[in-house]
Amino acid sequence: MVCLSNDESRVLWMYFECIFFLCFVLRSFSCSTCSISRSIFDVLNTVEGSSNLRRVQEISIDVPCFASLVPCARTERCDSQCVLPLRGIVYETQIAHWLEKEFLSPVPRLDADHTVHLRDIRNNAPVLIQLLVSSIVIETPSIALAGDLVQSMLQSLGITDLGSVASFPNELAIAQEVMQGIPECDAVGQRLSGDMSAHTALAKGLLYQAEDARVLRALGPMKEAYRNLFTLNQTILAQYKIRCNNQRDKVDSLKVLLQFIHNAARLRIGKPQVEVIDACRKAIGDDDVGLLAQAVKHGTASALAE
């Protein structure tokens, strides 16, 4: 059995902690490139083995944007996709360079069908990038991940204005369900506001009655008025809590919709990105679920008019 001193045990524990930290970052990081510097402490003994000197080694690791996407043999096709109107075969060399820059080793390679098969190690979701003659297809169940891939790819290709045709039925269904619940929150809020106004006026009347009874030294009516006022106050407080919860639900629903609009906009770049935001906001303002679906799919105002 090897006996270690307290200092050596602490240093060895810090060394393993650094290794576990780097492994966790490499498995979980996916959306932005960062430079991670971590100090790893190494125990160095002299020839006699009696020195307590320590040496600090600093290791810098550049984590690519899509470190969580790893190549795989073949992935199943999914119905969630984003189609970019680009001649994919023409950009094959630039996209191969983008794959080398933004993905970890082993670098994904285009196969004979000009397709890259990937898998997200965070949720085991399939990701497919296919270069066609007249378009580039990105298939993934996550609209947020598709937006990150589109933005990174277009910036690497030097494209500053481009639309797309997107289809994400699962996330669109969630957004439509949330959108349909917002009018109900508005109706509940208006009803509670009316009830609170009526109860406030009633509370003022009870307060006047109690004060009049106090001036007239009528103890019984005064107690009854204050008892009714206390009960009414409890009712007002309960309705206020309901109103707060209703408002919080409405704000949470709007946050979900705004995040969905943000993800849909990231599937485009330049002017089409602004147009899809305007179209989605108009759909939400008009409470038009169908218009929201068309805005996410086509994005541009011209496509909506057609």
Describe the 3D structure.
56% of the residues lie in helices and 15% in strands. By secondary structure, it is α+β, with helices and mostly antiparallel strands. A six-stranded antiparallel sheet has the order 3-5-6-7-4-8, covered by helices on one side. A two-stranded antiparallel sheet has the order 1-2. Residues 29-49 and 301-306 have low confidence and may be disordered.
Fill in the keyword field for this structure:
single chain, 6-stranded antiparallel β-sheet, 8 helices, about 15% strand
Portion of residues in beta strands equals: 15-25%
Number of helices: 8
Question: Which descriptor suits the 3D outline?
Answer: elongated
Distance between the termini: 79 Å
Gyration radius over CA: 31 Å
Order of helices and strands: HEEEEHEEEHEHHHHH
Structural class: alpha+beta
- Percent helix, as a range, is 55-70%
What is the count of β-strands?
8
Q: Looking across the biggest beta sheet, what order are the strands in?
A: 3-5-6-7-4-8
What can be said about this structure in brief?
The chain has 8 helices and 8 strands. The chain has helices at 6-28, 92-102, 143-157, 169-215, 219-265, 271-285, 289-297, 301-305; strands at 34-43, 54-63, 69-71, 81-84, 115-120, 125-131, 136-139, 165-167.
Describe the SSE topology.
Layout: H1 6-28, E1 34-43, E2 54-63, E3 69-71, E4 81-84, H2 92-102, E5 115-120, E6 125-131, E7 136-139, H3 143-157, E8 165-167, H4 169-215, H5 219-265, H6 271-285, H7 289-297, H8 301-305
Antiparallel strand pairs: 1-2, 3-5, 4-7, 4-8, 5-6, 6-7
